Amino acid sequence: MLDEEVITKAIVEEYMRTFLENTDVEAALGGAGPANLVAAKKLAEKGVKTAVYEEKLNVGGGMWGGGMMYPRIVVQEEAKRILKEFGINFSEYEKGYYVASSIESVARLASEAVKAGAEIFNLTKVEDVMVREDDHIAGVVLNWSAVEKANLHVDPLTVKADVVIDGTGHDAEICRVTQRKIPDADLQVRGEKPMWAEKGEKALMDTTKEVYPGLIVSGMAANAVSAGPRMGPVFGGMLLSGEKAAELALERIEEK
Amino acid sequence: MLDEEVITKAIVEEYMRTFLENTDVEAALGGAGPANLVAAKKLAEKGVKTAVYEEKLNVGGGMWGGGMMYPRIVVQEEAKRILKEFGINFSEYEKGYYVASSIESVARLASEAVKAGAEIFNLTKVEDVMVREDDHIAGVVLNWSAVEKANLHVDPLTVKADVVIDGTGHDAEICRVTQRKIPDADLQVRGEKPMWAEKGEKALMDTTKEVYPGLIVSGMAANAVSAGPRMGPVFGGMLLSGEKAAELALERIEEK
Amino acid sequence: MLDEEVITKAIVEEYMRTFLENTDVEAALGGAGPANLVAAKKLAEKGVKTAVYEEKLNVGGGMWGGGMMYPRIVVQEEAKRILKEFGINFSEYEKGYYVASSIESVARLASEAVKAGAEIFNLTKVEDVMVREDDHIAGVVLNWSAVEKANLHVDPLTVKADVVIDGTGHDAEICRVTQRKIPDADLQVRGEKPMWAEKGEKALMDTTKEVYPGLIVSGMAANAVSAGPRMGPVFGGMLLSGEKAAELALERIEEK
Amino acid sequence: MLDEEVITKAIVEEYMRTFLENTDVEAALGGAGPANLVAAKKLAEKGVKTAVYEEKLNVGGGMWGGGMMYPRIVVQEEAKRILKEFGINFSEYEKGYYVASSIESVARLASEAVKAGAEIFNLTKVEDVMVREDDHIAGVVLNWSAVEKANLHVDPLTVKADVVIDGTGHDAEICRVTQRKIPDADLQVRGEKPMWAEKGEKALMDTTKEVYPGLIVSGMAANAVSAGPRMGPVFGGMLLSGEKAAELALERIEEK
Amino acid sequence: MLDEEVITKAIVEEYMRTFLENTDVEAALGGAGPANLVAAKKLAEKGVKTAVYEEKLNVGGGMWGGGMMYPRIVVQEEAKRILKEFGINFSEYEKGYYVASSIESVARLASEAVKAGAEIFNLTKVEDVMVREDDHIAGVVLNWSAVEKANLHVDPLTVKADVVIDGTGHDAEICRVTQRKIPDADLQVRGEKPMWAEKGEKALMDTTKEVYPGLIVSGMAANAVSAGPRMGPVFGGMLLSGEKAAELALERIEEK
Amino acid sequence: MLDEEVITKAIVEEYMRTFLENTDVEAALGGAGPANLVAAKKLAEKGVKTAVYEEKLNVGGGMWGGGMMYPRIVVQEEAKRILKEFGINFSEYEKGYYVASSIESVARLASEAVKAGAEIFNLTKVEDVMVREDDHIAGVVLNWSAVEKANLHVDPLTVKADVVIDGTGHDAEICRVTQRKIPDADLQVRGEKPMWAEKGEKALMDTTKEVYPGLIVSGMAANAVSAGPRMGPVFGGMLLSGEKAAELALERIEEK
Amino acid sequence: MLDEEVITKAIVEEYMRTFLENTDVEAALGGAGPANLVAAKKLAEKGVKTAVYEEKLNVGGGMWGGGMMYPRIVVQEEAKRILKEFGINFSEYEKGYYVASSIESVARLASEAVKAGAEIFNLTKVEDVMVREDDHIAGVVLNWSAVEKANLHVDPLTVKADVVIDGTGHDAEICRVTQRKIPDADLQVRGEKPMWAEKGEKALMDTTKEVYPGLIVSGMAANAVSAGPRMGPVFGGMLLSGEKAAELALERIEEK
Amino acid sequence: MLDEEVITKAIVEEYMRTFLENTDVEAALGGAGPANLVAAKKLAEKGVKTAVYEEKLNVGGGMWGGGMMYPRIVVQEEAKRILKEFGINFSEYEKGYYVASSIESVARLASEAVKAGAEIFNLTKVEDVMVREDDHIAGVVLNWSAVEKANLHVDPLTVKADVVIDGTGHDAEICRVTQRKIPDADLQVRGEKPMWAEKGEKALMDTTKEVYPGLIVSGMAANAVSAGPRMGPVFGGMLLSGEKAAELALERIEEK
Fold first, then answer.
1. Which of B48, D148, G188, H47 has its CA 20 to 30 A from that of E69?
2. From the CB coordinates, do chains B and E have 3 or more pairs under 8 Å?
3. Which residues contact F223 (CB under 8 A, 6 or more apart)?
4. Helix, strand, coil proportions of chain G in percent (round to 5)?
């Protein structure tokens, strides 16, 4: 006998328990694109209390569409091991160029991140940050993304965090709000440069960094902040950027 | 050294090879929601040439949002084995009620379907059907969903199929176009009934059926066609409907 | 010392506690316009477990704007006592015609309903009903109204109820969904007739009734269902309709 | 016998009488959010001729939605007395943190302001200011907000005022138009800072001030003008800001 | 010395005096296109208390644009005398075909109607009718047209009238609402027929008639109701239709 | 020396001369898609006074986009001679299947139609028809398509014609307006059937016919009117349909 | 017998003749609001070849709506004589304040301007200017306003003029395009100041001037360019500004 | 017998073969307006591997609409030879002024460019450029234009090119993205100047040039980049600009 009341209670209680357990986390990740999904898995498997906030219904960011709506992505040699780690199938197109399904890639990145213990909150947007002593980020300010889409005027809630990772893609939204609201911060979203895959992929290893105390930037947001070149549908750098962002976050958490 | 030309070629060639290999399939599935993802896995692992067409960028249909934006779903006893089969984590809320993450559920359903060999084409909409001898469906008529969204006037292409499964949710779009264009067909999308989880879940086993020669309906589309009750965020019936649709499709394919 | 984490927890816990206490209510009211606010107060002060669902951010329905954006309403002799009961100021314009501020009226109706113990859930829409044995309403199907406004595909949750009052105004939304999904029900939303204040006000006492087992209709929804005349910015009938709806609901609850 | 002509005349005459009695007021308040509703009550009960202009149909500003659509607000110790003064129910969540219904709070703030004698004009927007001698605000320029929403080109009307309070929230609209049109004024809307509830609440006591001769700013508009931190769904500071704005307005009115 | 307060008072008082003088009129005309402007002049110069309601800011209906945006209209022999009566310049293109400026035509029609004593209320829409004894129209239900455009929920006001003329063009809005709300009325808006200028112009003399007790239809609305042919940018029939509508209205008023 | 005044005069005079020379034509073609461009050429080269009206800026209808945005079309054996006649390049893909550039095809169809003497008016929509004696079409009712797009209320102009060809594609707009406005006409737009290229191409030879005295239908509009199957990006039938429509038109013109 | 072909020809020929007679005018006026209608009459009655371009269907600019949608305007003593000159009815509200119907005012301004010989082109927008020798305006660049509204990409045509008057209201569109395209011109649209009727009305006499060789500005555009105060629904200054603009234009034309 | 599968395969294979043959071209032209169509023909007939990318379905840019929607263009003496070269019909309006159909002109420009061997990709947008060594353009970054219109987040693909010609009209989109992303480049889109046909046509010969290593600008984009005057519907300069752009491109290609 299936009782709707139990279904309602099960869903609300389970979600709320999870939400309330996560009002104070170690790592708060904004955006659930490929870089942050890698970062989430890496952090969670190290035992870090990790929450990922995604404004859309679905995770995966810009990876679903492959190149020009053909759902295939390319990954280069350096990142092949990450495909393997997540169990993503691939084939070799030419020496050093591996092709995978963009759909399977997202699915595997997400399921492994959740399996590792990261908590993903979808339909939830990081609309602002918390600061303390005017010199470090202390958490994220959250709202249902439907509030903005439906043009409602509703106050947000907050979640404390030791470190925040901005993986919101080209817009680098968390960095932008920080730049706008803390003009004294030495943080400027400079926008990505023209396409140059080789250079862009390499740049990501440098642009993935802490850009303000407590705020790390990953994936395309990293190149957007530091004016690195655009790369197109080659995703090796994105995956490695997520890995590096996790390492930097871990350092910061351990400092505390 | 990373060469953009190779990336472009790799993606286009791989996609086109796949597309051209699938201009004549055994099973064409419209919609990549939970029911059709289960069906796709079941068919593919039996060796059926299976293509899934999803108009959105992402797969997963209405499962991502859980209940009222709380990303949790409930699955009842009968379908627990499917959660296990796909490797989806769950916890028991109360005897016979299992709670899982809606996000992980989608990710696992999709990755297992791809792993089993089903080919998923996203951003691709089944906008019409092919008929033959005026008495059976012979394939699907496809277009980029962006064509409709961008309000462009562009002709579609076709893919032949032995059987088509309409898993497009409440709208039952493939059934609707069939009903509208073949008024003589004894096929009427009657719309789902008010909420009654218990009854709705059971009805799904009856409403998941062949509704026109060569056209099977699965998931919420099944209840929408046959006026079964609505169920809300309990997904056991959806998963079992996918399984049944696969069985029916297999029978039809084998008949040929 | 003010801690955001405590603020977050206080709000989420208090809301969730209230929500979970109300997954099974005696009276579920759809719409928080003047009629249903009167009904809510009347029911709550009799000790009935009463929940009101309003899809907008604010309560008050069509009362705020008075007549042609001039924020004044008129109430006739018969309903003067209700103005007094709720503590709404008024002045006599002409014998038997009382004028009040539409803004103060809404504010008093709402504050008294809450004070009496009714629970108001705003931003929450009754999008469907629950039925049992195919012959009575057993509860309401709820969703965040922002889900619809933001064009998201998200499943609803449910709340059981002994009786439902449709006070959703001219659209009579709950009656409409019931009519559409249960065509056999002898329930038809016929639409209101042309303006005739005198006749419309009187009709409301007849049109406020149980229109399907477990479903009572109040306020403008009542005239919309039964084709009563429209009244314009005279609100006495609305207030009395709310009172009558409460009485009918009480009878039904007591029957159970 | 109910006569529509009397209803029409009652509403138009009552509104117009009120409007014409208020073409020259002592205090003109832009926005009917929580701060200005407190200010309106405080001013009106001191006998100040007070008019409040609200562009929406409903009053209450951003308070209705509580935090993330959960209709609860938090008020801290210092402002508990204002909850009591307005008759708003609350419960103690933790020492010094009081939780109230956001819906009841708005309703009580509004009904008490009206009861005290403040005149609220809804659907009416302060779209500009009047200046005199190029060095002080002399009144407000009003239009139906529907004119702007319906994209019509219609001239406004004016109301003289000794003092204007900008309580239009984050946008600080009256301050913005003053800044734009009087560039020499030492008035700059700097935008609010990141979330820091403790500091933001305290800042409000400083940022609530006269920012240009005859123009006082209250509530979130005050922090928006002076770059105070954002606070989220804790409303104690808002209520106290309204109280302070009323005191400053009173001083200015008495000077004249 | 120019005082804004006097300007405000002058405008509000003059409008309100006029509005209140017109809560009970003899003839209420919906739409201020060419036919109703002629009707208004004819009625007003006979001493009939005449009010015209136009939902747009400007009067003139579909006459401004001439034919295909070339601002010229054609009037045939029979209506030449009306051009003269209103002082509209014209030239003879060919025997029996007179060409005038569409802009000057509207301007003259409107200024002469006002000069004759008709009261024009623009931005005001007839959204419904008043009925009495279920068998005759007793007045109009008015709202600011901006209310509908701005998607607000605001109640209307009413004006009593002995006779109503629907001159709302192709849509025949007043007839439509009457048809919808009084299905028993023998009134059906059948829509205009294909273009046939000769026949359409003649038909207008027959289709301009009382279609329900107290409701006369004029101009394109007349052909729309009675399925007369469309005429294009020849306006003689429109002007004559207005004249006839005035005569019919006068008869009805005199009967009372 | 280049003088703007001469440029202005040259363009206006040349267009107007052409327009005025074409207020009475032999054949008026609605829509400038592939079928009507073939028809226009065929008619014009026989000396028929032919005007084509296209509502878009560009001609070519649905041919530009090829199949699924890949700008290639297929033409079968029977229509190869038309490709040759218009000078369109093609290659043989497989026996009986010829592939051409959709872009070059449109360009050649249009340039040859103009060269043959057909007059194309773009941005001009056939919004209605003229009828005479209630039993035959006598011409077209034209308006700038920008009038509709810009939501303006502007009267149309007319052009007389012995025969009208509706080549407006799937919508069959001219047939629809005729059906709606002349319900007695035995003309019903039934909508196209599901995809079946072979059958659809053949059906076109039957469905291209006179559907009402003076009204011939061509191209996809023909299958839409007579419920012929859809064909997709194979265009042989379209070209042959244009040819047949021209022959039928010629017969009708010669009868007169 | 009424022949549509004659109607079509009459309208097209008359318009085109007028258009071609006006490809080289003495005064080109952008915008047909109250100031430019006065200017047009004044110029035309002096025998100046005058063309007025209005982008809307209707003339009258912001005058139709009176103040806050109450269709009444106020005119002060100094401009009373212009009301009389145009034959506009008015009543004295208070010494020196005259009230007129905004609707009659527009109608009279337009009909007198046309009667005096000014040619008004509606639906036509001045989208740019012509310059010569980089130091004076030599004409206007025109397009159908529907082109912009319908988002079409269509080239404009030109009309030569000795002088151009920008009477496009608050936006001062012709001045803005001149400022943007000729940055060296000492022309800056500074925007109007806050409301101060007395000062604004007086300022208009100074701000109505030649702002660039060959470009005069009138009405609200004049105050918008020179940062004069806003005035609201008092229109005396507007009428006098039109008169002055005409005088300045006359001087410039006579210089040539 | 017509087989849909063959049609699908023919279109996909032919397009893909062409696309893959063009992942490395000599000249990549952005925009298929008149200038670039001339350039494409000139380059292709010299044997240069030339690809043209057009974001719309149709080619022809702003030429279709002639002047103010009258589909005629003017060409002056100097460019008459190009009309002849493309086989476009024209007539002499006045000495040195030739008038042609805008529709035929586009059709001939396109068909001749394709015939010469240029490959046109429609529905494809150049959204960015590739750079190398930070000092020259190395190719284009392409996406389906429907991706942007449908608001999808999908990665682009790339095509290498020796030289890129920006012929995207007034917006000069490729120059703008280059300017924004390479701020150090001495490249600034300055916007076109007011209308001066004579001067603008001459300027085009100077403004058509290489503006950044590997990036040439043609047509209206050339005047937009270098602040040349606007010309209106005279197209001689556009055609000559295309010719010159081809010559410059050829030089650059030969240098390599």
1. D148
2. no
3. F192, F193, F200, F203, F204, F207, F229, F230, F231
4. 45, 30, 30
Q: Helices (DSSP H) in F150-235: which residue ranges?
A: 173-181, 197-207, 219-226
Which token pair is D88?
């708003």
Report the alpha-carbon angle B112-B117-B119, nearest 5. Answer: 100
pLDDT attached to residue D186: 87
More confident residue, D134 or E123: E123
Overall size of chain A counted in residues = 256
- Give all domains of chain A, ordered by start, each with its CATH number: 26-255 (3.50.50.60)
The answer to whether D211 and D185 are in contact (CB under 8 A) is no
Smallest CA-to-CA distance from C102 within C62, C74, C71 is with: C71
- Residue A149 to residue C151, Cβ atoms within 8 A: yes
Residue of C59, C195, C231 to mutate when probing chain E, most E C-beta within 10 A: C195
Which residues neighbour F4 within 8 Å (Cβ) at sequence distance 6 or greater? Answer: G130, G139, G158, G160, H195, H197, H232
CB G195 within 8 Å of CB D128: yes
Describe chain F by its helix, strand, coil percentages, rounded to 5: 45, 30, 25
The answer to whether the beta carbons of residues F209 and F248 sit under 8 Å apart is yes
| Residue D8 touches partner E, C-beta closer than 8 Å | yes
Report whether H107 contacts H113 (CB < 8 A). no
Whole-number percent of chain C with pLDDT over 70: 100
Phi-psi region for residue D85, left (φ > 0), alpha (ψ -120 to 50) or beta? alpha
Residues contributing to the annotated binding site of B: 35, 54-55, 62, 126, 153-155, 170, 220, 230
Cα G224 from Cα C228, distance rounded (Å): 53
Using DSSP, state whether F70 is helix, strand or coil. Answer: strand
Tokens standing for residue G59: 């003339």
The pLDDT score that the predictor gives to residue D135 is 84
- Report the C-alpha gap between F84 and E87 in whole angstroms: 64
Q: Which chain H residues contact residue G182 at CB under 8 A? A: 193-194
pLDDT at res. A135: 84
Taking an 8 Å cut-off on Cβ atoms, the answer to whether G130 and F16 are in contact is: no
Q: What pLDDT, on the 0 to 100 scale, is given for residue B184?
A: 87
Residue pair E236/E75 in contact by the 8 Å Cβ criterion? yes
Extract the residue ranges of chain A whose pLDDT is less than 70. Answer: none
D99-135 pLDDT, tens per residue? 999 999 999 999 999 999 999 999 999 999 999 986 8
pLDDT given for residue C133 in this prediction: 82
Cross-chain Cβ contact G181/H191 below 8 Å: yes
How far is the CA of D62 from the CAs of B9, C150, D65, D105, in angstroms? 53, 19, 7, 12
- Residue C173 CA to residue C168 CA, distance in Å, equals 6
pLDDT single digits (tens) A236-254: 999 999 999 999 999 999 9
ipTM exceeding 0.90?
A: yes
For B225, other C-beta atoms within 10 Å of its C-beta total 24
pLDDT of amino acid B150: 96
Residues of chain H with pLDDT under 50: none
Q: For C194, phi and psi rounded to 5 degrees?
A: -60, 170
Taking CB atoms and an 8 Å cut-off, how many pairs form between chains C and E? 67
H-run or E-run covering H140: strand H136-144
**Residue H108 near residue F111, CB atoms below 8 Å:** yes
Which region holds residue H8: left if phi is over 0, alpha if psi is between -120 and 50, else beta? alpha
Contact criterion met (CB below 8 Å) for C245 and C35: yes
Mean pLDDT, chain G, whole residue set: 96
For the cut 90, the answer to whether the pLDDT of residue E138 exceeds it is yes
pLDDT digits (tens, 9 = 90+) for F25-76: 999 999 999 999 999 999 999 999 999 999 999 999 999 999 999 999 999 9
